Every structure is written in structure tokens, then in C-alpha cells.
Amino acid sequence: MTINEAQQEIDVWIKKYGGGYFSELTNLGMLSEEVGEMAHWIIRKYGDQSLKPSEKEVNIDEAIVDEMTDTLWVLLCMANQMGIDLEKGLLNNFNKKTLRDAERHKKR
Ligand SMILES: [Mg+2]
């Protein structure tokens, strides 16, 4: 699935099942919420925070995928409602970073 296809599929889903898009500002809040949920599990896998007793049965790898996908979902919703072509944006971003950083990280 390309990014353009993902944007189109989400648009169809939102109109069919989601009752329409939330406002841009609501989605901005939801994006922050999903990033926080993703951070919760990444911190527990890679950081110093340990699991709560109620989290012991959670598959952390699956939780990270789920929250990362929730984050992508909201971002794609925002792109749709703002008329942004994220595939074109990503290609432009690759070009920008390549021009700016082609030599920058080779010494790391
Ligand atoms: Mg979530």
C-alpha cells in the first residue's frame, strides 16, 4: 500500500464508518495522545521504566505496533482533511534531507 493509497483508504473508512473527520484541532490533540501511548510502550521496552502489574500480560512489541499505527492513522486523517499529499511531501523531504545531509552523518 502506498501512502496515497493509505490516505484514500482512510478517507473511505472515515466516511463509511467514522461519521466524518474530527476537527483538525481535535485530531491534533489525538495525535499527541497517540504519540504518548506509543511512548508509554517504547519507554517500557527500551527505557528504564518497568511494567505495572496490570501490564505484565501485554505483548509490548504488539502494543508498540498498535500505537505507532494509531499515530500514523491520525496523521493520515489530518493530511486528508488539510488537503496534504503526504507521499509527495515525503519524496520532497527525502530530497531536502539528501541535499542537506548527504555528508553530514557519515562521520558518526
Ligand atoms: Mg492508541
TrEMBL record:
Matches recorded under InterPro entries: MazG-like_dom (IPR004518), MazG-related_YpjD (IPR012359), YpjD/YvdC (IPR047046)
Highest rank taxon of the organism: Bacteria
Domain NTP pyrophosphohydrolase MazG-like: 23-103
Protein name: Nucleotide pyrophosphohydrolase
Organism: Candidatus Opimibacter skivensis
Phylogenetic placement of the source organism: Bacteria, Pseudomonadati, Bacteroidota, Saprospiria, Saprospirales
